[in-house]
Design a protein that fits this description.
The protein is mainly alpha-helical. Helix content is 80%, strand content 0%. This is Transmembrane protein 42a.
Length: 106
């Protein structure tokens, strides 16, 4: 029905919202965590790295909006480098071992 990217983005957003709600309301924390784990498990089937990245970016943005936290440029650079590394890992093709039949033919 939905793509894995949608589930991953939603799981990341809900994870950050759960963290934010821990400071505001305990019931909201449990509700967001329950829904976040549901979407996160669906996202794992498709694209795990998007959930990690969306969660980190959402933490930064929600911290800025609700609590006035300022993150250093180095923090944003670190998150961006993490995103680049995850994209490289996700985009790489798995290397398979040559079959024994192929080895015998050579």
């Amino acid at each position: 029905m939905f793509s894995g990217s949608f589930y991953a983005l939603l799981a990341g957003f809900l994870g950050a919202t759960a963290s934010l709600s821990a400071k505001l309301s305990l019931g909201l924390l449990f509700a967001c965590n329950a829904v976040m784990w549901t979407f996160f498990s669906k996202a794992l089937r498709h694209s795990n790295f998007i959930s990690s990245v969306s969660s980190a970016f959402t933490y930064g943005l929600l911290g800025r909006l609700f609590f006035g936290e300022a993150h250093a440029t180095l923090w944003w650079v670190g998150i961006s480098l993490t995103l680049c590394g995850l994209l490289v890992l996700h985009g790489s093709t798995p290397q398979t071992q040559p079959r024994e039949e192929d080895k015998k033919e050579k």
